[in-house]
Design brief:
Length: 369
């Protein structure tokens, strides 16, 4: 349907809704039906985008639902109200586990339910469309056995926001078990960040976050010689920051007291440990550079500049400055580039080319509640 025709239909509906007729229940149902049918295609199905905008405003009746409706009954009721291309596609039903899927090329529907402590059921439907416009919408309903109705319900998962702009989100409803997993695919990394939400008998709550290949990242951190590492270097939170501003993020993790941390570059599945934090050092940033500074003894300062380019570890500069004890003694600086000593003049040239620094202002996310 073209946009001018859609606009005209919406305008007509608006004028009808704003008339002086009494607002009877039948009129409201007719208006809802007209609103729904206005976005159906020639095959009588609705697009995922249209359903995503409207589903929360409509209660669904489940015919002969009774106390314990099957997954087939719940899905059928949903499909009658919100018919999609996927609903007419190849279907798979696991009645024992209360799980069903159906799909066609370019669209998929997954549904399941959980038994609630109050005798109701929590019913969820995930509609996904990987082709443009890419949409992945998750809908929740409370099934009331006394009324035989599915009432739209707000969930914590519907407020989910990606850790970094541009991440692709997928929702996985459980065929077995009770957890929902929300996965963020990071294109530049070729890895997922997976967020698990557990069911407590009433609703879903955040349980934990896992990052693909995090065990390898932790090993890189554990293997690094760091005499100033704290006694509890377990990382409890993470942030995604774009240090080299190439559109793909770097990973920054920290422990509970924010003294110990690690910063990684990740590209096409490969991982580099850029720098670590500890109570004895300070980490700051320049565009494409992680700077770590700390003392190395009385009158001694060490600074490392780790360069990041295209989300990969690049050159590493290090300078150790030993200060004189006399006011007129400027001290001496020794420079290294990639662990090879270089002339002080080359190091000074590098320092002069540095920008004034950048503020990343990361948004931190918890690995676990």
């Amino acid at each position: 349907m073209n946009k001018p025709l859609t606009t005209l239909i919406c305008l007509c509906l608006l004028l009808t809704a704003c008339g002086n007729q009494p607002k009877s229940e039948s009129n409201e149902n007719e208006n809802a039906n007209e609103k729904t049918s206005a976005v159906k295609d020639e095959e009588g199905t609705l697009g995922v985008e249209a359903i995503a905008k409207q589903w929360a405003d409509k209660t669904i009746t489940v015919e002969n639902g009774g106390q314990a409706p099957s997954i087939e009954q719940l899905v059928e009721a949903f499909n009658k109200t919100w018919p999609t291309a996927a609903s007419k596609g190849k279907a798979t039903v696991d009645a024992a586990n209360g799980y069903a899927t159906s799909e066609v090329e370019g669209q998929k529907m997954t549904a399941c339910f959980w038994k609630r402590n109050n005798g109701h059921r929590l019913f969820a439907v995930n509609l996904s469309q990987p082709i443009e416009p890419t949409i992945n919408t998750l809908m929740f309903y409370d099934y009331d056995p006394a009324k035989g109705t599915l009432t739209p319900e707000k969930s914590l998962l519907q407020d989910f926001k990606t850790s970094f702009e541009g991440n692709v989100v997928e929702y996985k409803l459980p065929q077995k078990g009770k957890d929902i997993v929300v996965s963020e695919f990071i294109p530049g990394w070729e890895k997922y960040i997976r967020h698990t939400y557990s069911f407590d008998g009433t609703k879903h709550k955040f349980a934990r976050t896992d990052i693909d290949d995090y065990a390898k990242m932790k090993k890189l951190y554990d293997d690094k010689d760091d005499m100033y590492r704290g006694s509890n270097p377990t990382m409890v939170k993470y942030a995604l920051v774009d240090i080299d501003q190439d559109g793909s993020p770097e990973l920054w993790t920290r422990n509970e007291n924010e003294e110990d941390g690690a910063i990684y570059a990740i590209n096409q599945g490969k991982i580099w440990l850029l720098e670590t934090e500890n109570y004895h050092s300070t980490v700051t940033f320049h565009k494409g550079i992680v700077q770590q500074s700390g003392g190395c003894g009385t009158g001694c300062q060490t600074t490392t500049f780790t360069l990041v380019k295209n989300s990969k570890l690049d050159d590493v500069y290090k300078v150790i400055t030993e200060y004189g004890f006399e006011d007129d003694d400027p001290g001496t600086s020794t420079w290294w580039k990639n662990e090879k000593e270089i002339p002080e003049a080359e190091g000074d040239k590098f320092m002069k080319a540095l920008d004034d620094g950048i503020e990343l202002n990361p948004k931190w996310h918890s690995f676990a509640k």
